[in-house]
Amino acid sequence: MAARIRFDFGTLTLDAELLDTPTAQAIAAKLPIASSALTWGEEVYFDAPVAVAREKGARAVVTPGEIAYWPEGPAIAIGFGRTPISKGSETRLASPCNVFAKALGDVKALAAIKAGTRVTVTKVE
User: Alpha-carbon distance 47 to 114, whole Å?
Assistant: First the structure.
């Protein structure tokens, strides 16, 4: 079974399964992470103290439920719908990101998260 992490926004938690990528390994090694959430359209993102280069498979368009690392941030980005640069109904992040985890819950619930909300990311034992 793949390792799991938990995003805790206080009023909402979201568990995710880590993929087998260098980014996932780097993020897991830095846990726990505490930050302040920001929003951009239907995306929640926050600073992450991780330095990982853009991976070969990095992409800007993600499927809701895919959790990404934005090397230019550096930040963790969770898109759950349209952003200001989306074309049609796609979920388009600011630039290509490394997808490193898959949400196990409904990411649409993140619509309730406001900028400034504290977020902690921990390993699930």
Answer: 15
